[in-house]
Structure formats: C-alpha cells, structure tokens
C-alpha cells in the first residue's frame, strides 16, 4: 500500500541513505499540516517537500528548483511560440534604471515607489547617482521607443522580454505568490491606432486564460479592473482572476493593460502618420509571472502534497518496480525499462525509479508528494499477465492495463486527469461564488470566504469605502474585476454599498 512505511514526519529529506530498515525509521514523508486546517503551514511544507523551492537566506527570495523551473519552461515555450505567431519579437533591456528616468512618469512609479530597490554603493564607494533595480520596465524601455519610432512605417513596434524584476515586498512574502524577486515575461507594444491596441489587449488576455485553464487546469474569470485597481498610469487594465477556495482569496493571475497615450506623452513617442501629421502612439503592456505556479499548487494540492496537471508536470509517469521475494527481479526491472522506453518514444515524460535503497511504498509516497500524475507499478503478477498497474494521483483510482495497449491507455488517462482537475477546481470555485444585493449580504458572504458578485455603481469613492469598512485582521475586501460576461442587470437594480443605481456586476473579495 502507498505510504505504508512513511512515518508522517517531514524532517528527513528524500535523499536519505541507509539500509531499508533505517529508511523506514528515519525517512519521513507525508505532511504534518492539513490543507483544510492550516493552509499557510500546509503550503509552506508542500512547496519545500515537493522540491519546488528552497528557502534562501534573504527573506522573500526563493530558489526555484528544477521541479518548478520545468513548469515555467513549459508555459514559456507555449506562450513564446504564440506571441511569435503575432509577430512579437523578443529582446532584453538592462536590469538597472536611473532615478531621473524612473521619476519621469510620476503617476506610474508612485504605485511602485515603496517597493523599488536601490543600488547606492559600489564596493565601499557611495554612488554619486543612485540606480534603481527595475520593478517593471515601462520607464526603462520607452525612452528608446521614442528613438526608434519616427514614422508610421515603424509601427507597430511589438517587443517582449523574459526576465526577472525586483519589488522589495515587506509584508507576508509567500513563495511564488508574493516574492521580492520573480520571473516573468513583459510585453511592450506601440501602435498607430487605439483599435489595434484594444485588439492586442484581448488577444494576449486569451493566451493568459489558456495558460491557466488549458495548462494549469485552474479556472479564471476574464474581466476589467476598476479605475482604482488598474495599472498606474494606464488607460485600462484587463485581468484573468483566479480564486483559492481554502483561503477565500482572489488572485490576479495575469494582466493585459492598454496604456493609452499617457506614456507616449511623457516619453515623446511620436510618429508621422500617412497624412504627414504628427501623432502619438497607443501603447500596451502585459505580463504573467511565476505566481502562476503558486496558484496551481494552492488550487490542486492535497494532504499528500502536490498534484500536478499532466500538461505541465516535469514527469508525467513514474514507473515503480515491485519485486517480491523469489520474484524474477531482472525481468521486472527489464519490463520497467521497456515501459519507460515505449512511453518516451510516444512523447510522454516518463522515468523509472529503480533505486534499491527505498521500498516501493516509500517511492509511492515520494512521488505522490511531488505530484506526478500517473504511477505505473510492475510486479511478478503484472509480468506474468503482461499488464501494468496504473494509479492516478488525482483520485488514487487503480486500473490494470495490458502492456500491448500501454501508450494508448496512458494518453487517455493523462487527458482525463487534466480535464478532471479542471472540472473539480471549477466546481469548487463556483460553489464559492455568491451573488449579493446589499451590504448585509456582502459582509456575511465575506465572512464565509466567498468570491462575491455584486451590482455596483462603479464609483471610486464607494470602492474606497468598501476597503475602509472591511479592514481587519483578514485584510480588506476590494473589487477583483468586472467580468466581460455580464449577467443581466435589471432596471432599478441598486449598488450593494451605496444604494445608487447600479451600472455593472463586479466580483469582490479579499485577495493576495
């Protein structure tokens, strides 16, 4: 049985050495906290024990281990190929930005000011001019947009860079979700017309939806941020919003902004149009980050550890030999090697765990902790029957597969796991959404950790009031987004907080 010899302690690492008896005593697998009972501690355990991250000696900074980086690479490969189809080119701009340039767009940088990290010394010498480390790259890139764009033939200019940024967060750092340094892609584009910019904003947002729903199996809501919550200095912000039922918190999954002409004005990004007139460009910026990985872990993980969707799992199938006393050990190991070879040749990411210093039960628990979608066990009976035992990570169901049908059956099972994870997450998310019409219903739903859909007058002052009135230990509520797919708003419907005529439906809740 899986996990039979796991002690439940999480102190020893999976690399523990020794004889089998010692392994059983000393190697702890399993989590000491449950997801429903202590979510924060559970999450911290899962990301470390699942070998996603290692804590670093600078608070808020984390080492991304190969198990996590491989997920980022899979999303990177998908997104990079898609934006190249849109004729968006990759580039790279420096990490550093001068104070003069950073302060040029004051409305924009004001939102980042508390988080900007500064280089003030070189060795023991104090720098005459302090240098900032980019919190985002608008002010880094746009002086050069004004240099490169002269006429309408220079447009559109569509650039993307894969890089890191630093935002010196001081409150509640959380691996993947909120860290001082993180990886992302950031796209920056310029167009001759607003229509072109508007089209791209939604095209990119659809790619972000696909990353979450098709790859990470996490349901998201596409919508528009309020004026209060939009990107500072931009015209409007669109978002894909996720939700973590266990904490009752929304997550801004990825954003696609139309910047309008504000930055063009500040950085003098002008061009001569086809009529020979001077005009300002229309700009967009858009980004998603390694936060995506944290959302996936929070949504799918369980009390055994990670649960990885097959599309992003570094390892989709782990093959475990199960030799018994007097069994044909060589035959079993050969069957494992043959199984891995067949799966790899069919395009699956598969490996065999043939380590002889761990029992099969220990291996089951180890790979469950790491979230591998499918486990294949091969023992003497399987060898005799020319079958393998397949065990799903998402629901622990077991089935015996004829070796002759292996690749076809594995493909079906992995597709089914991917879809089942999404369906389960969506069902759980949907049960957490509550529609309210007044303040009493709103506060009650908030206390129950709901994602709240409410009619709203769309006034910034009222949004500030909601934040002020809900401020507490759990954090204030705020607008998450106004969904593009708006439910019907009957005439005479009033705003849940102000009592004024409502203009739209908006999702509200606490957020990360």
Q: Please, could you describe this protein's structure?
A:
By secondary structure, the protein is of the alpha+beta class. The chain folds into three domains: 62-300, Bira Bifunctional Protein, Domain 2 (BirA Bifunctional Protein, domain 2, 2-Layer Sandwich); 315-416, 3-Layer(aba) Sandwich (Rossmann fold), CATH 3.40.50.800; 433-511, C-terminal domain of ProRS (Translation Initiation Factor IF3), CATH 3.30.110.30. 34% of the residues lie in helices and 26% in strands. The protein has helices at 20-26, 39-49, 66-85, 99-102, 106-110, 138-148, 194-215, 262-267, 291-300, 329-345, 360-369, 380-385, 406-431, 439-447, 460-470; strands at 53-55, 62-64, 89-90, 96-98, 117-122, 125-133, 157-166, 181-191, 221-224, 236-244, 249-260, 270-272, 278-280, 282-289, 317-321, 350-352, 374-378, 387-392, 398-402, 433-435, 451-456, 478-483, 504-511. Helix 3 (66-85) packs antiparallel against helix 7. The longest helix is centred in the last third of the chain and has 26 residues, at 406-431. Residues 71-309 form the Aminoacyl-transfer RNA synthetases class-II family profile domain. GO terms for molecular function: ATP binding; proline-tRNA ligase activity. One of its GO terms (cellular component) is cytoplasm. It comes from Salvia splendens (Scarlet sage).
Annotate the secondary structure layout.
Layout: H1 20-26, H2 39-49, E1 53-55, E2 62-64, H3 66-85, E3 89-90, E4 96-98, H4 99-102, H5 106-110, E5 117-122, E6 125-133, H6 138-148, E7 157-166, E8 181-191, H7 194-215, E9 221-224, E10 236-244, E11 249-260, H8 262-267, E12 270-272, E13 278-280, E14 282-289, H9 291-300, E15 317-321, H10 329-345, E16 350-352, H11 360-369, E17 374-378, H12 380-385, E18 387-392, E19 398-402, H13 406-431, E20 433-435, H14 439-447, E21 451-456, H15 460-470, E22 478-483, E23 504-511
Parallel strand pairs: 3-7, 11-23, 15-16, 15-17, 20-21
Antiparallel strand pairs: 1-2, 4-6, 5-6, 7-8, 8-14, 9-10, 9-22, 10-11, 11-14, 12-13, 17-18, 18-19, 21-23, 22-23
Helix pairs in contact: 3-7
């Amino acid at each position: 049985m899986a996990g039979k010899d796991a002690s439940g302690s999480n102190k020893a690492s999976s690399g523990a050495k020794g004889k089998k008896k010692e392994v059983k005593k000393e190697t702890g697998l399993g989590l000491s906290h449950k997801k429903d009972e202590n979510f924060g501690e559970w999450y911290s355990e899962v990301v470390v024990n699942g070998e996603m991250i290692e804590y670093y000696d600078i608070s808020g900074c984390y080492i991304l281990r190969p198990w996590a980086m491989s997920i980022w690479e899979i999303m990177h490969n998908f997104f990079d190929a898609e934006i190249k189809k849109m004729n968006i080119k990759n580039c790279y701009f420096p990490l550093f930005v001068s104070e003069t340039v950073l302060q040029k767009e004051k409305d924009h940088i004001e939102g980042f000011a508390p988080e900007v990290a500064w280089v003030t010394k070189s060795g023991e010498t104090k720098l005459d001019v302090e240098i900032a480390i980019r919190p985002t790259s608008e002010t880094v890139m746009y002086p050069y947009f004004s240099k490169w764009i002269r006429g309408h033939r220079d447009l559109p200019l569509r650039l993307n860079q894969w890089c890191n940024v630093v935002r010196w967060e001081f409150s509640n750092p959380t691996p993947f979700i909120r860290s001082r340094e993180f990886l992302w892609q950031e796209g920056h584009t310029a167009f001759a017309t607003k229509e072109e910019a508007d089209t791209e904003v939604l095209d990119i947002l659809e790619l972000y939806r696909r990353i979450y729903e098709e790859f990470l199996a996490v349901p998201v809501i596409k919508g528009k941020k309020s004026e209060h919550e939009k990107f500072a200095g931009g015209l409007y912000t669109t978002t894909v919003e996720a939700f973590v039922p266990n904490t009752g918190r929304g997550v801004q999954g990825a954003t696609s902004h139309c910047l309008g002409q504000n930055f063009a004005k500040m950085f003098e990004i002008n061009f001569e149009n086809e009529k020979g007139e001077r005009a300002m460009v229309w700009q967009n910026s858009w980004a998603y980050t390694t936060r995506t990985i944290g959302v996936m872990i929070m949504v799918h993980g369980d009390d055994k550890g990670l649960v990885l969707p097959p599309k992003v799992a570094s390892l989709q199938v782990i093959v475990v030999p199960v030799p018994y006393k007097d069994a044909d050990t060589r035959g079993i190991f050969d069957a494992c090697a043959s199984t891995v070879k067949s799966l790899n040749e069919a395009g699956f990411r598969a490996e065999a765990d043939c380590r002889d210093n761990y029992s099969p039960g220990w291996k089951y628990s180890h790979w469950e902790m790491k979230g591998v979608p499918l486990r294949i066990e091969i023992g003497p009976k399987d060898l005799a029957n020319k079958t393998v035992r397949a065990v799903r990570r998402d629901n622990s169901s077991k089935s015996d597969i004829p070796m002759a049908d292996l690749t076809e059956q594995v493909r079906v099972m992995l597709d089914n796991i991917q879809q089942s994870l999404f369906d389960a997450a969506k069902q759980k998310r949907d049960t957490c959404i509550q529609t309210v019409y007044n303040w009493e219903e709103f506060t009650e739903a908030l206390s129950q950790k709901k994602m709240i859909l409410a009619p709203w007058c769309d006034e910034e002052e009222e949004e500030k009031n909601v934040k002020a009135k809900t401020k507490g230990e759990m954090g204030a509520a705020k607008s998450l987004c106004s969904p593009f797919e708006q439910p019907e708003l009957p005439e005479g419907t009033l705003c849940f907080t102000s009592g004024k005529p409502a203009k739209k439906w908006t999702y509200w809740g606490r957020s990360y």
